[in-house]
Amino acid sequence: MRVLVTGGAGFIGANFVLRTLATRPDAQLTVLDKFTYAANPSTLQPVADRIRVVRGDIADAATVDPLVAESDLVVNFAAESHNDNSLADPSAFVQTNLVGTYTLLEAVRRHDVRLHHISTDEVYGDLDLDDPTRFTEETAYNPSSPYSSTKAGSDMLVRAWVRSFGIAATISNCSNNYGPYQHIEKFIPRQITNVLTGVRPKLYGDGRNVRDWIHVDDHNDAVWAVVDRGRIGETYLIGADGEVDNRTVVEAILTALGQPADAFDFVTDRAGHDRRYAIDSHRLRTELGWRPAYTDFASGLAATIAWYRENRDWWAPHKEGVEAAYARTQQILD
Ligand code: NAD
Ligand code: TDX
């Protein structure tokens, strides 16, 4: 099977490439990636002789068209993915998440190629802390940020191309991923690398926002389950029952690294900050038989902390720049 992995040099896409090489010897992988600030070329370096890597933009039809034409499957991970960046400047989010997805859709339509589109639970907006419900495939879209609204728009484009043009596509909406190779702008790796460099972790607002954590390998196994067994035109929610509030995550990181659990700072809250995400992945489990392997967040987090401790070369050159950018927008609260 010839698979085009767009965004395959980023966090989830690169983990997808590594896991697919390890588990699916039949797959021939081509990565199409723009290598924005979010891509780390060293992630795929060890497997460079086993894949093809093309540097290019999913919004560039001339690049996309021949690559799609020669593929059996496109898995679209490419996106601008960080909420904080989307608040500072939404333009790249509109361009990549909307125009890029549109460009891929036109190519798969032209060449009749199967597409799986990777999306997020953030398209559903947020839940109150005491809301007994969780997101399902039937929940109405209600995105909050420039990031999540462009992801919501990209999902809508996919659905419309299925209905109007009969393309063979599926969508999955996953909750917050953690694991190796995640950019250190994101919450968990930011706080791990803060502690490892002697900087106090930074919690937005009151630190009680809840995220539904899933290990990146569980996400990618679910993606393959949808590709292998999912119904064309359907959406599948991916989640591993991993709800934890941010303060609890930071306290666990501090404790694991031998620091007092209260050695963190509260900083200015994110504008429009979603309170809570929670996924009901019933459809994925019952229809497709998927189960997460990482059911204990504490041990998955411990393995992730160990990875960042052992792979300093991967992130250390970027640490100062990431923190300098945050320092320009965030104030420590008394
Ligand atoms: P990431 O930012 O780590 O990686 C994105 C990759 O896409 C990078 O390699 C980047 O260079 C590439 N890219 C950006 N613009 C591009 C363009 N125009 N053309 C080609 N490549 C481009 O993101 P991630 O966390 O790996 O997320 C991957 C996908 O999963 C995204 O679609 C995101 O919305 C979705 N998602 C992420 C999470 C999460 O917790 N990280 C959860 C659910 C869904
Ligand atoms: O320094 C921080 N302090 C903090 O308290 C950072 C970076 C974040 N936070 C909070 C904000 C969120 O409540 O931690 C939580 C997680 O933040 P992010 O890592 O920025 O993730 P989130 O905004 O929840 O979005 C993530 O999950 C869904 C991914 O970045 C998206 O790509 C995905 O769609």
Task: Supply database-style keywords.
334 residues, alpha/beta, Rossmann fold, 7-stranded parallel beta sheet, two-stranded parallel sheet, 16% strand, globular, binds nicotinamide-adenine-dinucleotide, binds thymidine-5'-diphospho-beta-D-xylose, lyase, NAD(P)-bd_dom
Largest sheet entry: 7 strands, parallel
Distance between the termini: 56 Å
Number of E-state strands:
13
What is the tally of helical segments? 11
Strand order of the largest sheet: 3-2-1-4-5-6-11
Assembly type of the shown chains? single chain
Chain-averaged pLDDT: 98
Q: How much helix is in the residues?
A: 40-55%
Low-pLDDT residue spans? none
| Rg from alpha-carbon coordinates | 19 Å
Report the CATH C-level class of the domain at 2-178 and 214-238: Alpha Beta
Distinct ligands: nicotinamide-adenine-dinucleotide, thymidine-5'-diphospho-beta-D-xylose
CATH topology of the domain at 2-178 and 214-238: Rossmann fold
- The CATH homologous superfamily of the domain at 2-178 and 214-238 is termed NAD(P)-binding Rossmann-like Domain
Percent in strands: 15-25%
Taken in chain order, the helices and strands follow as EHEEHEHHEHEEHEEEHEEHEHHH
Shape, per Cα inertia axes: globular
Class per helix and strand makeup? alpha/beta
